[in-house]
Design brief:
Helix content is 38%, strand content 12%. By secondary structure, it is of the alpha/beta class. It has helices at 5-8, 33-44, 50-53, 59-64, 98-109, 129-142, 159-167, 184-187, 193-206, 224-236, 263-276, 293-300; strands at residues 48-49, 69-72, 113-118, 147-151, 172-174, 212-218, 241-246, 280-283. The longest helix has 14 residues, at 129-142.
Length: 302
């Protein structure tokens, strides 16, 4: 019998985690002609992708279809989130020529939709906002038919930085919430839950025509009630698109995996999100913020 949302409310892991990942989390190893070509192109242009740096399980699928999420501003983050596989420490000096290289890669790949993300750059005066804005502008100049989605850090809540990125007119403004309020100090010590809400309030008031998007990863110790409450908070600040996916522990040094969320639970979260009024909800074990981003844009009618 299909479970209802009320039957999964409050469910939390009681039994030990299985030794092996559930079948629904198994993916094929990366390979294929497009994957190899894209990997070579990234190395040729000295670019980074979050697909590689964050150990995304979908890298083979996305790259084989000729799509990728560019990670700008280097590959070393100034923060050390407990769930993230990206390297942290002192970043190298920002390369102002990087935006042009990204635009060239987008042109050569003939992408219809591109996602730009970055590490946190708390060391820069604008926290990296110019890098995003300039990359958007150069992509649009080189590939006028390509839509651009940005997955930005919190810029420490700087309205000037948010404004600079929105002024470059991305098609979607995305900032990930990542987890529920109770787990912020443990999982995301450099972030603030209320800051996330304020970012979306400001983005909506400053550029009401640009859709907003966020993502939550599940399995770090949250309860289903907390997930639902966070979903309501995000709708209250008028977020349009929501993604929910399974946390996969990058290493023993990262926050422990608490549970495997079942496909039925992900389906129920999607149902609940649509009932709350999200324009689109992408919810599943292998979902990541930029996974099948072009399909998400189409589904949301952006």
């Amino acid at each position: 019998m299909t479970e209802t949302l009320y039957q999964i409310m409050g469910r939390h892991r009681a039994d030990p985690l299985p030794v092996r990942k559930p079948a629904w989390l198994k993916v094929r190893a990366p390979g294929g002609t497009n994957y190899t070509h894209l990997r070579q192109l990234m190395r040729e242009l000295d670019l980074h992708t979050v697909c590689e740096e964050a150990h995304c399980p979908n890298v083979g699928d996305c790259w084989d279809h000729g799509t990728a999420t560019f990670m700008i501003l280097g590959d070393v983050c100034t923060r050390n989130c407990a769930y993230c596989a990206v390297a942290h420490g002192r970043p190298p000096k920002f390369d102002p020529a990087e935006p042009a290289r990204v635009a060239e890669a987008v042109r050569r790949m003939n992408l219809r939709h591109v996602v730009l993300t970055s590490v946190d750059r708390d060391d820069l005066p604008d926290f990296g906002a110019w890098g995003f804005a300039e990359t958007i502008r150069l992509i649009k100049a080189a590939s006028p038919d390509t839509s651009v989605e940005v997955l930005v850090p919190d810029f420490q809540g700087s309205e000037d930085s948010i404004r600079a990125v929105l002024d470059a007119r991305p098609e979607i403004y995305n900032h990930n919430t990542e987890t529920v309020p109770r787990l912020y100090k443990k999982a995301r010590p450099g972030g603030r839950y209320e800051r996330v809400m304020q970012i979306f309030r400001f983005a909506r008031s400053y550029a009401p025509d640009i859709p907003t998007k966020t993502g939550i990863i599940l399995g770090m110790g949250e309860t289903n009630e907390e997930v639902l409450a966070t979903m309501r908070d995000l709708r209250a600040v008028d977020v349009d698109i929501l993604t929910l996916g399974q946390y996969l522990r990058p290493s023993e040094g990262h926050i422990a995996l608490d549970r495997y969320v079942t496909p039925a639970e992900f389906a129920m979260f999607r149902e609940h999100g649509l009932a709350l009024g999200y324009r689109h909800v992408e919810s599943g074990p292998l979902v990541r913020s930029s996974y099948h981003a072009w399909e998400q844009v189409q589904a949301a009618g952006v």
